Amino acid sequence: MPLQKLLKAEWSGLLLVVTLAIILIGYLKPSFLTPFNIQILLAAISVNMVIALAQMLIVGIGQMNLSVGAIGGLVAISFAGLMDVFQLPIPLAVLVGLLIGLAAGLFNGVIIAFTGISAFIITLASLSVFKGINLGITEAQPFYGVAESVKSFGNSSFIGTLPLLILPALLALIGVWFLLNRMRFGRHVLAVGASPTAAGLVGISVRNIVIGTHALSGLLAAVAGMMVVARLQIGQPTIGDDWLILSFAAPVIGGAVLAGGHVNVIGTLLGVTTIAIITQALVLFEIDPFIVQIFLGLLILWAVGINRLRDLRLTLFSKPA
Amino acid sequence: MSQQITLKTSGISKSFPGVQALQNVEIELHAGSIHALLGENGAGKSTLIKILTGVYQPDEGSVKLLGQAVSFSDTKEARRQGIAVVHQERHLIPRFSVGENLFLDRLGEKAWSWVDYPKLHEEAKPWLAAVGLDLDPQTPVKQLSVAKMQLVEIAQAISQKSRVLLMDEPTASLTPHETEKLFSLLQKLKEDGVTIVFVSHKLEEVLQICDYLTVLRDGQNTCTSQPIAQYDRQDLVQLMIGRKEQIPAWQTREVNRQSPKLELRQVSTEAGHQDLNLQLYLGEILGFYGLIGAGRSELAKSLIGYFRMTKGEYLLDGKAIHVSGVSVARDRYAIGYLSEDRKSEGLILQHDVLQNSGITVWRKICSKLGWLSDQQVTNRVSPSIDKLEVKTPSLAQMVGNLSGGNQQKISVAKWLAAQVEILIVDEPSVGIDIKTKAYLHELIRELADQGTSILLITSDMPEIITLADRIIVMDDFAIKGDLPNNRNYEEMSTGIMNLIHS
Question: Which end of chain A has fewer beta carbons closer than 10 Å to its terminal beta carbon, N or C?
Answer without folding.
Answer: N
